Amino acid sequence: MKFAIISNDTDLLRDKIAESIIRRCLQHGHEIASPDDDIKFVLNLTSVKSPQFFRRRSQSIFVFSLVTAENAGEDLHAICYTTLVHTLSNIVLCAVPSNGGIPDASGSSYEIYFTTPESGFYHLPLDPEAVYQQIIPIAGAHFAMKNKLSTDLPRRYWKTSPIVQKIKDYGKELDKLGALPAPFPLKEILSKETIQHIYNLFEMKGLSYGNLSARETIPELGGTTFWMTARGVNKAKLSTVGKDVLLVKGFDFEQGQALLSVPPDYDPKARASVDAVEHELIYRSFPDVGAIVHVHSWMDGVLCTRQNYPCGTRELAEEVLNLFLQTDNPAQTAVGLKNHGLTITGPSLDEIFKRIRGKLLTQVPMFT
Q: What CATH number should be reported for the domain holding residue 121?
């Protein structure tokens, strides 16, 4: 796997840590290359005071930004997340002195904090091999979030359906339950040009968390059809078919794209949630699943994924599916996404919300 290294300043501590991570990557057989080469990831050496971003050519290139901080104060999460947004990164790695700089049992006097776009924020003692094991599975992941839209939605569904109305209603309830955390205010820290680059790269119109979907059988469109909330829309204010709610009629796994059926007056910029690949796998594997809810919240006692793969990757979808296969009742349960949230299945949205009311924890636990 080829990777590039970029830097916009000098930081002796950061650069020493970077050297150890780079050395570990080389020992595992990876190769340093030019940013213009066929690279899979970038190690971006930057700072929280003057963050730089790498303008990647495609969403398949992962960016890991390495910075340092003087201490792990209560504002470290905000500082790291702001840096993540500024640097357009998949993960920010922040090295912080631990125990007053006194080495722990492993010999490390620093901790490394990981921050992800899903608001994941976790840490471990600084060890080059441990850092390598955290980032390489992500660098090798494959996004499956493209969309192909066709204007073949039957006329009777152009405006709404009982299932669509349920999705609209329960989008409002997710907001009331506190399960739709406000996304980071991009406009406060990024230029319009940079924001547009992000939206174009990931085919988004905005930034939002959580999604809902529900099965509706439409025989003329195939055996597995389901409605799903669109990418980047406010789930508390869903309104229009072909814009805020979209019908997924299949998935092209080779191309990594959801196949959507839309009305003639659809929004050409509309895209299904990046989790469409995950929902498709679940519906196709478990015929008794009638609805799925994804929230950045938590519930006690759930099975959890081992790796924090990014949303919209085939690897995350497959790992979530494998978790459901390990449960007693895949069609009516919840599984955890590490440092991220929950995917919840049920026979209907009514049943799911009846089951989760009063049980959602809005703070997702973090662990390595």
A: 3.40.50.10300
Q: Is residue 363 part of a domain?
A: no
Q: Which domain, by its residues, includes 344?
A: 146-356
Q: Clarify whether residues 29 and 115 are in a common domain.
A: yes
38 and 17 together in one domain: yes
φ and ψ of 40, to 5 deg = -105, -25
Do both 25 and 42 map to the same domain? yes
Q: Which two tokens stand for residue 368?
A: 């390595």
Per residue in 107-166, pLDDT tens? 468 999 999 988 789 999 999 999 999 999 999 999 999 999 999 999 999 999 999 999
pTM beyond 0.85, yes or no: yes
| C-alpha neighbours within 13 Å on the C-beta side of residue 91 | 27
**Distance between CA atoms of residues 95 and 7, nearest Å:** 16
Kindly report, residue by residue over 14-57, the tens digit of the pLDDT: 999 999 999 999 999 999 999 999 999 999 999 999 999 898 88
- Other Cβ atoms closer than 10 A to 202: 18
Which residue, chain included where needed, has tokens 């059926």?
261
Q: Which of 275, 276, 271, 87 is nearest to 197 (CA)?
A: 87
Query: What is the rounded (10 degree) CA torsion for 301, 277, 205, 78?
Result: 30
- Token pair recorded at residue 153: 């939605």
- On whether residue 361 sits in a domain, the answer given is no
Residue 366 included in any domain: no
DSSP state of 307: S
Structure tokens at 182: 């406000």
Low-confidence ranges of the chain (pLDDT < 50): 103-107
Cα 131 from Cα 125, distance rounded (Å)? 9
Q: How far is CA 14 from CA 45, 54, 232, 244, in A?
A: 8, 18, 35, 43
367 lies in some domain? no
Q: CA–CA separation, 341 vs 275, rounded Å?
A: 13
